[in-house]
Amino acid sequence: MTAAVIRGVKIFQEVGISAGTAPSGASMVGNFPPGDGDEEQNSPAPFRVIVGIAVYYLFSLLLFIEDEDHLKKIAAYKVVEYVESGMVLGLGPGSTAKHVVDRIGELLRQGKLKDIDGIPTSKKTHEQALSLGIPLSDLNSHPVVDLAIDGADEVDPYLNLVKGRGGSLLREKMVEGACKKFVVIVDESKLVNYTGGSGLAMPVKVIQFCWKFTASRLQNLFQESGCVAKLRTLGEKAEPYVTDNGNYIIDLYFKQSIGDLKAASDSILQIAGVVEHGMFIDMATTVIVAGELGLNVKNKY
C-alpha cells in the first residue's frame, strides 16, 4: 500500500497539483491562466485540482489491488513448499489458489516436481490445470488425498472457515474432507472474530425445487442472529446463479454470531432441500495469512 501511495503522489504531481498550491499560472479561486484559447490551458484551477485528486485516488486504488494480488502470490508460493513429488493434490479455485496451480505447473515443467495427480474442485480449476499440463484424477481413483490447497472467504480464530462465495463449496468440501492435510491461503482481510463476522455471505447450496421454501426455513433458523437469506443471482436480469452441479445458492447474512457452529451445521443439513453449506469446521490444518508485514503461519495442531 505504501508503494501505491508514493506512486499515486507522483501522478498527482504530474498533473500539476502539489500540496496546498495551484498549477502554475492559476489561482485556487477559479481564475483562468493566460493562454491562447486552448481548452486545456483555459480549464479553471479548481477543476484541475479535482481531476488531479481523482487521478491520484484512482491510481492508488489500482496499485492497492496490484499489491494485494502480490501478497496472494507470495502466500501461494509459500504453500507450494508443502507439495512433494508423488502426491495427490486437491486443487481449489479462487484468486489465491490460481497462483498455486500456476506455480505447480511451473515446477512440473522444470522437473522439480514429478508424479503429481491433481483433483480440481471446480470446472475453472480443471481447465486451468489442464492448460498447464498438470495430470488430473478424481476421488474415485484416489479416495485419500495427500494435500489440499485452497483459499477461504473467512477464517475465525479457531481456523474454522467460510468458503463457497465462488460457488464450488460442495466439490471443495468433498475433496478437502478426504485429505490428510488441508492448507488454506488467505490475505489478512479474511480474518474475522466469528464465522459470518465479515457481514458477507455464508453460502448454502440448495436444490432448485421450491428454493423459496428452503430459503425461508434457513432464515427462520437463525432469526436470533438477524439472518437474511437471499438467492444468489447474476446479471441485469437477476437470473439465479447455477452451480457446477446444477444447484442454487442461498446466501445467508448474519448481524451477529450464530453460536455453536457444529449445532448450526447439523440444523442446516437437517432441512430437506439443502445440499451443503459453506462452513468448513475443524477442517483446516494450516492457514497461511499474507499481510503487509509478511506471512503468518497458523497451525491447528
Automatic annotation (TrEMBL):
| Catalytic activity from the UniProt record | aldehydo-D-ribose 5-phosphate = D-ribulose 5-phosphate
Q: What EC identifiers does the entry list? A: 5.3.1.6
Q: Which GO terms describe its biological process?
A: pentose-phosphate shunt, non-oxidative branch
Record has Isomerase as a keyword:
yes
Q: Which UniProt keywords apply?
A: Isomerase
Quote the pathway field. Answer: Carbohydrate degradation; pentose phosphate pathway; D-ribose 5-phosphate from D-ribulose 5-phosphate (non-oxidative stage): step 1/1
Q: Which Pfam families match?
A: Rib_5-P_isom_A
Domain of life according to the entry:
Eukaryota
* Keyword Phosphoprotein listed: no
- Recorded GO terms, molecular function? ribose-5-phosphate isomerase activity
Enzyme class per UniProt: isomerase
Q: Write down the Gene3D superfamilies for this protein, in alphabetical order.
A: 3.30.70.260, 3.40.50.1360
Report the family membership.
Belongs to the ribose 5-phosphate isomerase family.
Stored PANTHER family: RIBOSE-5-PHOSPHATE ISOMERASE 2-RELATED, RIBOSE-5-PHOSPHATE ISOMERASE 3, CHLOROPLASTIC-RELATED
NCBIfam families linked = PRK00702.1, rpiA
What protein name is recorded for this chain?
ribose-5-phosphate isomerase
